[in-house]
Write a structure and sequence with these properties.
The structure is a homodimer.
Chain A lengths: L10 H38 L6 H18 L3 H24 L4
Helix pairs in contact in A: 1-3, 2-3
């Protein structure tokens, strides 16, 4: 590029970013739906006296998602860390629900 | 429940978990697609000499996703932490790409 050429907007980068923004909107909406369900799970567990976390269930989830990740071309170690990140937030919610005084 | 009643499988919990598993499969596939795009961004940035991270872009993403989260009923603070978690992994990938010797 010579100094006299105008700097063009980076259309390639803008196109990539538009796709990332679409995917992120989908991720946010899926996460919102997932937390709606886990809130219901939290109330259900509190009602019947189950503990907030379930290590055996979490091991099953990790194994399944690692396998799905490999099929989808996603790093399975990252996927496990991702699930841990979500589940930690869920357990925090379940603990808050379990600590609420009964009506 | 009297001692003579059999312990029934928890169908309500199983139903919630089946929905969570479906959502998690969708999340894994969306994340795989998102990383395919950010890998392309990484190569594009390395080719034209842009740095791996772009704080102004990240601020725009945070503001947009916090707003989407509120509409969707998701905790905006959690959403920001979630985006940070994903973007940190992306920047790590971009740094690896930028450090690769040119062919």
């Amino acid at each position: 590029m010579t100094p006299s050429e105008p700097v063009l907007p980076d259309e390639q980068l803008a196109s990539y970013r538009a796709s990332i923004d679409n995917i992120d909107a989908a991720l946010v909406h899926l996460l919102a739906e997932r937390f709606k369900i886990t809130q219901a799970v939290g109330h259900h567990k509190a009602a019947i006296g189950l503990p907030p976390s379930d290590p055996a269930r979490e091991q099953d989830q990790i194994a399944r998602l690692r396998s799905l990740a490999v099929e989808a071309g996603l790093d399975p170690a990252f996927t496990e860390t991702f699930l841990r990140f979500i589940v930690d937030e869920v357990i925090r919610h379940h603990q808050l629900i379990a600590e609420q005084p009964s009506p």
